[in-house]
Design a protein that fits this description.
homodimer; DNA-binding; three-stranded antiparallel β-sheet; alpha+beta; globular
Chain lengths: 144, 144
Amino acid sequence: MSPQEQPVKEQRRTRQRAAVDEVLDETEDFISAQDLHAILRTRGMSVGLATVYRTLQTLADDGRVDVLRTAGGEAAYRRCARDEHHHHMVCRSCGATVEIAGPAVERWTNSVAKEHGYVDVSHTLEIFGTCPRCAAQSGGPAGR
Amino acid sequence: MSPQEQPVKEQRRTRQRAAVDEVLDETEDFISAQDLHAILRTRGMSVGLATVYRTLQTLADDGRVDVLRTAGGEAAYRRCARDEHHHHMVCRSCGATVEIAGPAVERWTNSVAKEHGYVDVSHTLEIFGTCPRCAAQSGGPAGR
DNA sequence: GACCTTTTGACAATGGTTGTCATGCTACAT
DNA sequence: ATGTAGCATGACAACCATTGTCAAAAGGTC
């Protein structure tokens, strides 16, 4: 309902944005602005921290990357493979991410919203767990 | 699986904790540590900000309050009415909160997790929208 | 190349949250 | 009631992610 279709404001192509884009392309899992900045530094491509923040924010606003708040309150970004709305299941130890679509959940949230008269609803849903690989490593039984 | 049942560490009862508890009891919606601290000040019950943070954190650790990260990354707390796992639908403008239980969602997340071999899963789900009252006020049609 | 805008970057500023540590208070034993 | 031990408190500094500032640099155009 009312999906303000701003055709994504035209932007200039700069070395810095290309660099951020590149890292996002190569990175499978969620990454924080700070980490991304650190990686750029490592590669010798010096980009201002503020610029990284601005670039990621712009990408997020345009829906070209997914944003996720970690438990610590930091923002993490990730290039989304699919355009439609979807969610993520993230591994607590290695960060491996699985994109998941849940039509059922979408329907459910909508019905709940309608039931209570809420309009213009959105929602966030993230699943955290331990992926098979990490589970296998850190000892099967004897949790910790 | 391994629900580390720490019987809630015994704690001393202090004036400050009682004060925080009281505010939580009276507050229907999510409230940030800062706001809670401000309220205490208003009432003349001076409690250190650090103490408010510590108290809320402890309560959250013990599962006696729900924690929610706002879009801005701030933590908001709320006494949960029900003990079992549940979610919230929060109004963007007035903060009115509805507690909702979604057995279907729980089952869905579990099946998704199992499907991908993830174990020890947890999840966060929050719904944001505009409650009927606020929707009525801020003009029906002509969004903004 | 000249020109106008957008973008960048270094750094300050902000704002929430946590750490520090001397002092205060609770709980419990005397 | 008094003493005692140790957790709790509070004032403030320290942190850390993020945002604001603004002059200098780069992109796009003519």
